[in-house]
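Quick log. Single chain, no ligands specified.
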Amino acid sequence: MQQLLHTKEPTPTPTPIRPGRLRAAWRAAHEPVAGVSQRMRLVAYAVPLTVLPSSIWRLPAASGDGLGLGERAYVVSLSVLSEAFAFTAIGLVARWGEVFPRWVPFLRGRRVPRRAAVLPAAIGAAGLTLLFTLLFIASEIRGTTIRGSDLPADYPSRAGGWEAAWFYFCYAPLILWGPLLGVLTVAYWKRRSAAERAPAAA
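-> predicted structure:
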């Protein structure tokens, strides 16, 4: 009897979060909706990859000498925000780009208005194409900055050798950011327009 009284019940161990559940939740959230072709899916996943090299290229500059705390924070936040902005392109093929996710207050489960998604995407695609595709190429040909001023002596492309090659390797993919986003925007508009016309035709 005393042994029964002094016997301690085993402490329940918390159930660990299985990587499989996180993977399944990620796939469910970003799985392309019906009507998205394999080509558009690849285009959407390619957009964040076009931004990733330049985002990584900036990070060592944040630890360089002569930068204040504010400048370091700016460099890091620029890389993080650029990648986050590029990631929104996946919403043009995934369900959360057509139906508001559950974590969005007051709008959860409602349809995303077509124009509310297309208008910012189209503006972003046009701005990115102008900035990184047209102005960047033109400035490199003229040997000036995007603003038209002379390149400073410490500009990466003027360093030559591996440093210049690494700079172009990381920044050249940005040329595709705007055009790829434009292709996704047009495909999103056509798909949503066809889906909204289908009930009326039926």
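Residues 4-9 have pLDDT under 50 and may be disordered.
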